[in-house]
Structures are given as structure tokens and as C-alpha cells.
Amino acid sequence: MRDTGRDRAGLLWVLPALGFYACFVLYPLTQTARYSLYDWNGIGEATWVGLRNYLTVLTDPTLRDSVVHALVLILFFTVIPVSISLLAVATMGRLRTGAFVSAARTVLFLPQIIPLVGAAIIWTWMYSDQGAVNQVLRAVGLSALARPWLADFGTALAAVGLIGSWVSTGFCFVLLMVGAGKIDPALYEAARLDGANAAQEFRHITLPALRNEIGVAATITTIAALSSFDIVYVSTGGGPGFSTMVPGVQIIRLAFTTGEVGLSSALAIVLLALVLAVVLPMQVSNRKARP
Amino acid sequence: MATSPNIPRRTALGALLALPAASALSACGAPGSGPATTAPRPIGTELPGEPTTLTMRANADQAPLWEALGSAFEHAHPQITVELVTEDFAALQQNGPRYLASQDAPDLLRFPSPGDAVADGLLLPLQPYAEAYGWEDFPETQLNQWRIAADGYTRGEGDLYGLGIGFALVGLYTNTTALDELGLPLPASLEAMAEAMAAATEAGLTALVASQAGLSNILQNLMQATAAEQVSDWVLGKPGATIEGPETEAAAATLLDWRDRGYLAPDVLAVDDAAALSAFTGGQGLFYVQGSWMAAAVDQTATDIDVSFTVVPGTGPDSAPTATSAPNSFVIPANAEHPDVAAAFLNWASTDPEARDLLVATAGLLPGGPVEPEPTLASEGALADAAAAFTAVSAADRFVDFLANASAGMLTGTLQPQIDLLIDGQSDPATFLSRLQEDVERERA
Predict the structure, then answer these.
(1) Distance separating alpha carbons of residues A86 and A98, to the nearest angstrom
(2) Does residue A237 belong to any structural domain of this protein?
(3) pLDDT of the residue at A96
(4) pLDDT at B4
(5) In this structure, is residue A281 part of a structural domain?
(6) Which region is the signal sequence (chain B) (predicted)?
(7) What is the pLDDT of residues A83-128, one digit of tens each?
(8) Among B335, B203, B218, B226, which residue's Cα sits nearest to residue B276?
(9) A137-193 confidence digits (pLDDT tens)
């Protein structure tokens, strides 16, 4: 009987959060799934179309390409930041704490506290024809490379992606730094006594110890890449042409600009499935690898 | 209880999780609702005697104009208070249908393009007001963008559902200082314009200054030279209208030819409106195709060059003056509380001499409606030229709505990306036009 009472009390405590979750996540999710089966402008009468919206998402080249762009962004939002952070953590772990290390930490973390919209605006200026990036290139004699980075079909997606790298590196770095702080220094000492070099220490101590943190960082940044919206919307709006269009921007456009709520909902459901398809295997392998 | 202590928790949890599922099931019918059928109500052209508040929602970038008009209207009719709310234009465009559908809809809403609003029964028909106030006598091409047929979608004919306050037209700004140096007169035909551009390119000028966003205006003017009716019918969604055809394809090919001859800046896709304006007013270019909404800014910043504004020439000197133009359209929601006051405001803003002067003085816009009374204008400069051009096109009744207004998603979803692809050489004129056609058909379907 005492257990029941405690269960009830426990339930009471989670009830508010669960209520909000049901109200603002589960309910809208069911509604999105429902809308995705209709041709609806958001206000007037809706027409049942079954799975036709899903067929459009999978066959329309612009919508399909936007999904491909989101996958490319994983390289910039996840692979690059995690690699840089690992390198930084390994390097700083070998340095004595001091002014340099704390300055480096601050610099790496700074982008994380800037709102994404702000980051996108800053970078839009820096990438512009007369912006900082081109000024530097011209100053070092590489003016042949200078170009309007965000307006060039060949460079726009990578340029947008690098804004994402700049933002997520701070997050990945802090996460890995905390993880590295928990590694017993004695392990490094023992390795050094055995004659291990920096690369071996990294390979056999740091990397295995940070497996969980890497998993978390990779999961969160991958979700950010696949569902990216702010940076693309502000910096390019999906252009030039459709070269940086991503599902996040497309969903808003379809729902609120062109009034295709059904198609927009179908794309949102497909994006949800895509995120789960990419992230779940990462989670599972991360859990399996846990000692 | 003792045997299954967990039941209450499970039940409660289950109930909680079932809530959204159940509401989803119960709401499994089609979302949304059809238009409400309302009986036509009598209209009045007399303002109420008692204190009344007119609520108005408009775009923030023109807030000074709406404020000036609001206070002038209050001054003329002391019992009326104009309550103005402004917001970012893009947000206003996106939220428009939701404001119209809301229970406390404003009395007047700045609403750029009808979209589905008439079919959804969200707009008050203005036809009775148009007849009572005499708007029917305004030039027809100022009104046809807001005439909507009984099917709720086809524009260009039928009842009136919106009225513009202040017009702007796209035209050709010419750096006459540079043109004089080249020893050439103002071009009277597209051919003469091309010759002048060749000479300007030779002289090291950017022959045709444009921003990425402005490219569609150049293209539309090229199309209008030979296919104005086709373009207009297509934008208005007349049955069977198409943007594809030999004339429009030739127009797009001409734009590419101009690009190949170096008349456009090589990085034109990276040029924004502000950069284009400063390149032109700084004297780096010869021509600049842009809206008259920039005329006041051009007059202010072009201190070292003389500038004229004309309608973009047609195929020959005798071509009827034609211009792309759209009003600052306002609609009265079907749910509006004071539709009569809103209509009186619209009428006042188009016909009252003070309001007409305010449009020019505050926003550089040209009053539509009757040609008289003429607004007060500076004697020279781009803005004065624009007013003369507007009057000439009004007289010929040859305004064409923007390609961008063909559908709600046309500008951002189709026109701008497709022009990028066309100018970058990844698309060709025929493909470009078929994409425009496909997207409009999909959106209207």
C-alpha cells in the first residue's frame, strides 16, 4: 500500500510535465500526421488525398534534393565539429591549465551562446563580396578565390554548413571537455611510464573514455543538421536556385507561404522518420558499446 | 488494491496518453471549414455620429504613411479613432489569412494577393461600395487585380474585393549624365536601349544595374513589350492562360543575351537592392530597372548624376506605355466590425486631396483612382517623372500585375530560385517558363 501511495505521488509530480508534453508535442504530432493526408490550405475546406502528399515528397526533385542537402549538412554540423573538438580536447589535456587554455575554451564556446539567427547574420556579412572572408583572401594574394560565397551555386551549401560547424563546435567541445575531466589522470601517467606517445594516449585512453560523450554530441548535432532551419532561412533562404534548400525551410514555405499544409505536414513526417532512422542506430550502437 | 497496486498509475498514464490519440480520433474528419453563407447586408456611406474605432493592420515598412493617413482621417472626422497595428511585411503576408479568419478581425487589412481568401469566404465584397462611391470609374487595370469571378479564384473580372492605397510602377531609371556623355538620347525602343547598353559597356559602365531580386522586373518588362496581355492574364489566373509561348521565351532569351554581352554585373546574383541602388546613384551604371518606390531614395542619393524615370520602352517608339504595377492593397474582412467606416477610409485615401498629397510626400507613392486632383509634386527628379509615367500608363490603362503575384508562393518558391538557375546557365528559357507554369498550376490545384 505504501508503494501505491508513492507511485501516486510520483505520478502527481510528473503530471504537469506529462500534460505539457501531451498537449504541445504528442497532440500536434497526431495532428501533423492527420493533416498530411489532406489537401488543405490551413483555413478552408480540406480534401482527403490519402498518401498522395507522401508520393509528392518522395518524387518532387526539389523536395528530394532538400533532404539530400540536410544529409550533407551532417558533415558540417557533426563530423567536423566533433573532430575539431576531439583534437582540441586532446591537445589541451596535455597542456597545463592556464591563461591560454581558458582563453581557448572561451573562444571555442563563444559561438554557442550566440542565437543562431545572429550567427547567420554575422556570417552573411562576412561571406559577402566585400566581407571579411574575401578581404582576408585578397590580402594574402588569393583574390582569384574571392567570391560572393552564399550567392555562388558551387559554394553556398558548404558556406552555410560551415556556419553550422562554427556554432556546434562550442557545444561539442564543452561536452567532450567535461568527459575528459572525468578520466583518471593515473591512466595517462601509467601510459606515459609505458612509453606511450600522444597519439597512442589519444587512441587508447581518451577516445574510448569519451565514447558516450561523442555519442551524445553526434546525436544532438545530427538532429540539428537534419532539422536545420534558422541558419539557412536567414543566410540564403534556400538559394541560390535551390542549392541550399533544406526540409526545415521548405516546411515553413509550404505551410505558410504557399498554403499547402497537407504537403508541408507530409514533409515534416518524412523528416521525423529520417531523423529517427539516422539517430536511432547511433543510440543503439552507443548503448551496446557501453561497458 | 493490494493485488494490483499499479493499476491506478497505469490507468492515469494511459488516460493521459490516450488524450491526444482520442482527440485526434474524434477530430478525424477533414480539418478546416467551408465558407459561411451570409446574406448580403445593407451598406452605408455615412460615417457614424458616435465615437468609433477603426482598426487597421498594415506593413511596418510603410508605417509612417499609415500613421499620417490615420491621423489625417481622424482630423477630418473627429469622432473616428484609427487604431493602427503594423508588422513585418512577410509576416503579414503569411498571417493574413489567419487574421481574416479570426473572430476579432481588423476592419482594414493590408493583404497583397487574394489567394484562397475569396473562395474561403473571408473577404467582404466591396462591389456595393464601389458602386456607391464611384470606384467603378477608376482605370480598370488599377482594379482588375482585385476583381474576382464567382469561382472564387479567377482574377480580372467579377466583383471587387480589395482596393489599393497608393501605387508604384516599375520603370527605367536612366543616368542621363552618362547618356549625354555617350551622345545618345533617351531610348524610345528596346532596340535603342540595347544599343545604348552596348555603348555603355564599351565605356566601362555597368550597362544595366540590377539586384538579384530586380532581375524578375527586367524579365517581366521584356515580356510585356510583346506579350502584355498574356502576362497579365497569366498573373490574374484567367482560365487557360499560360506563361509559356514564343514571345515570353524570346524575352527570357533576350535577358540571357544581355547577360552574355556583359550588360549585367557578372555577380548580379549576389547583388542586393541596397547595393544596386548605391551602384546606380554612385554613377557606376547607365540604366536601372526598379520600382518608383525607390524614386525618392534615388532623388536623395544621386547627387552627382542627373536621373530620369520613364516607362521601360517597348518594341518601338509607338508602343503603348505599359508598366508593371501593383497597389498597396487593402481588404475588409468578412468579420470586420465597422466595414462602412473602413470603406469610407479607403474612399477618402483615394480621392481626398490631402490624402493624395500625403501618399506622395510620405511614401513617394502615386495616388490611384481619379486623375484629379493632381497631387503636389516637386517640379523635377525621378519622383516627378514617375508621376508623369504613372499618369501616362493610367491613361492608356495598361498596368500589368507583378509575375510574383501569380500565386502566394511564386516569388520565394519559384520566381527567384528559377531566375537564379536561368542566369547561372543551369536552366534555359523554355525550362524556366515551364517551371513557372507547373508551380502555378500545382498551387492553384
Answers:
(1) 19
(2) yes
(3) 61
(4) 39
(5) yes
(6) 1-26
(7) 999 998 888 776 666 777 788 888 888 888 888 899 999 999 899 8
(8) B218
(9) 999 998 888 888 998 999 999 999 999 999 999 899 989 988 988 888 888 889 889
**Under DSSP, is residue B56 helix (H, G, I), strand (E, B) or coil?**
strand
Superfamily the domain B52-167+326-387 falls into: Periplasmic binding protein-like II (3.40.190.10)
Taking CB atoms and an 8 Å limit, are A258 and B16 in contact across chains?
no
Residue B108, exposed/middle/buried by CB under 10 A (0-12, 13-18, 19+)? buried
CATH number attached to the domain at B169-324+400-444: 3.40.190.10
Domain-by-domain residue ranges, chain B? 52-167+326-387, 169-324+400-444
Could you check whether B52-167+326-387 and B169-324+400-444 share the same CATH topology? yes
Taking one residue from A and the other from B, the number of pairs with CB-CB distance under 8 angstroms is: 141
Amino acid at B370: P
pLDDT value at residue B10: 47
A38–B31 CB contact, under 8 Å = yes
DSSP 8-state secondary structure symbol assigned to residue B405: G
Which amino acid makes up residue B284? Q
A128 close to B (CB below 8 A): yes
Q: Which amino acid is at B194?
A: A
Does the ipTM exceed 0.85?
Answer: no
A16 found inside a domain: no
What average pLDDT does the structure give for chain A? 89
List the single best residue of A45, A252, A264 to mutate versus B (max B Cβ within 10 A): A45
Residues within 8 A of B (CB atoms), A 27-56 only:
27, 29-31, 33-35, 38, 40-48
* CATH code for the domain of A116: 1.10.3720.10
Q: Which three cell numbers stand for residue B7?
A: 493499476
Summarize pLDDT for B77-94 with one digit per residue, the tens: 999 999 999 998 878 888
